[in-house]
Amino acid sequence: MWNPPDPKTFNPMVWMIAKQIPEGQVSTYGQIASIIPPPEGVAPPDYRRLGARWVGTAMNATPANEGVPWQRVINSKGEISLPAGTPGAHQQRTLLEAEGVEFDDKDRVNFEHFGWDGPDETWLKKHGLFTPRPIKKSGGKPQQPKLL
DNA sequence: CGTTTGACTACGC
DNA sequence: CGCGTAGCCAAAC
User: Fold this and answer.
1) Which of A26, A64, A123, A133 has the smallest set of CB atoms within 10 Å of its CB?
2) Closest nucleotide (CA of A5 to C1')?
């Protein structure tokens, strides 16, 4: 746990969680944030947005040699969040496609197929973390098209 | 030390 | 479903 909103602690935690993402799957900034307990004084609704930004900042500061799969973290829309056209964005897409992650014609990843469900409960409990909130799914496929 | 920018989201239209 | 706007924080200028 971490009482104060200390980025020095927050960042490594983000990277640690990112390392749990299996190859061929993707997570989102918001999802990772939802795994980390919000600091005191920050309401969960606010933290959801704040945390996402913090995670983004953390990923931006990701050490290159730590083996952190930074490419598996994308935004809630399912698309690469680095500015299009930058080398980083291109590299991220290349890395993901090499893992088997597919992009549609709108350059977006379908969370239904490649979305990450989060770390094992055992792992989460071991580190005192929360169960991630389900990733927002695009379109939303009706589970039972209720035919009548 | 004030300003601007950013690897975000939710919400309204 | 796509586009624009508001909110909030930390890091970079």
Assistant:
1) A64
2) C9
